[in-house]
Amino acid sequence: MKTIGRNDTCPCGSGKKYKKCCMLKEDIANLGTFRYEKNLAVRSSAVEKMLKLADGKIGINQMDVLLFLTDSPIFKERIVDPFSGSKEDAFIFQYLLNSLLVYAYPVGSSGGRLWKHCLDKYRNRFSEEEILFLQSLNNFTGGFFQTKEIDPNEYLIVAEDIFTLKTYKIMDRGLSSNIVKNDIFAGLLIPYDKDSYALEGGSPIVFPPMKKEYIREAADSFFVLSKSKLRGEINEKLSRFLNLYPVSIYRIVLDYYYITLETPPPKIMTTDNEEIVFSKTFYKLSDIQEVKNKLLAEAGFTISGETNEETTISWRNKKDTVLGTVFLSSHKLRFETNSNERLEKWESIIKNMPIEFVSTESTDFQSMMEERLNDPGFKDKDLGKSAMDDIPEEALRGYCT
């Protein structure tokens, strides 16, 4: 590929020299990325130092933070143990506890936040850039924000505070790559430059848009329990409450996390309102041509593919929904479908055919997805492409909604 010279005509078609056109834009973009990465490194370094000071010099342990997090009647019926459960549970608890410790835990006799305590007592432990970061934390805006626009190339998210409806431009590399439009995230917004913010103390839990009312109700519950005397309209009061007591942000996140753990996943249904259960049933046969002819004589069975080794027959209903697929080869037949009801109907169709049942393997949709997502090789694949090609469209529709 030919390198574009500084004095060459810009390939965008503007007619200007490259150095006075797109090269400037690229330089600005590169400078912006460099500045963000440097800012991220400063923030990470400062947070790491704060956590070490909390554990060493200040003497705050995880149990202190956990007890503060769960110091509410909301959690009195639950046994909250961050050290039990899966690796994912442990990661989420650790993330929440660290975020809470840095951004919401009261430290010292004054009850100030950890960053204020570090500025007052351990300022010499931080670089000038880290001190500027710690000072910027005084101007945080805490709450829950609904995503409106995403530009992962610029690390940019445009989001709306669900209480005040104020819109913010937020710089966050990780979040912009993983969140989708209308999802809700929580944390503290810190001024990044004149018109954008950085997300600090963000939660690893993302709320789907239909949980907006739950967040409102949960915030109101914590607000009532605090007996705070805030004035104004309810959304304004709740927003101010979350900023005065940011621990409530993490309590809402933890409460929701427990709700999702305790709530069984919804059943995924076919278009015929049957629970999706994938099955493969195996048969032996002696005369492949006879079985093929008998199947094709049944309503809805048509050949969808044929080679020297195998014939594929699709079974469809009048709405052209695939009810199952038959694979015929040599002395074997395999039938695949995605509900127990369809399997039973298939069994009634073939009961007089010259085939011999061997075995059936089945799994529900949730188990299938968990198995795939726990496969290290699967996580790097594009879920919208080949990795899900063998999952029926109606199953994917149900799963995505």
Give an account of the 3D structure.
It is a single chain. By secondary structure, this protein is of the alpha+beta class. The protein has 13 helices and eleven strands. The strands form two sheets. It has a six-stranded antiparallel sheet with strand order 7-8-9-10-6-11. It has a five-stranded mixed barrel with strand order 1-2-3-5-4. The protein is elongated, with a radius of gyration of 29 Å. The C terminus is likely disordered.
- Range of strand content: 15-25%
The total strand number stands at 11
In whole angstroms, the N-to-C terminal distance is 44 Å
Radius of gyration: 29 Å
The geometry reads as elongated
Stretches where pLDDT falls below 50 for ≥5 residues?
378-401
Main sheet attributes: strand count, strand direction, barrel closure: 6 strands, antiparallel
In short:
Helices cover 41% and strands 21% of the residues. It is an alpha+beta fold.
Provide tags for this entry.
401 residues; 11 strands; six-stranded antiparallel sheet; five-stranded mixed barrel; single chain; alpha+beta
Describe the protein's topology.
Layout: H1 22-58, H2 62-69, H3 87-103, H4 114-121, H5 128-136, E1 141-151, E2 156-161, E3 167-171, H6 173-178, E4 184-193, E5 196-200, H7 212-226, H8 234-244, H9 247-262, E6 276-285, H10 288-296, E7 301-306, E8 311-316, E9 322-329, E10 332-339, H11 340-349, E11 355-364, H12 365-373, H13 393-400
Parallel strand pairs: 3-5
Antiparallel strand pairs: 1-2, 1-4, 2-3, 4-5, 6-10, 6-11, 7-8, 8-9, 9-10
Helix pairs in contact: 1-5, 7-9
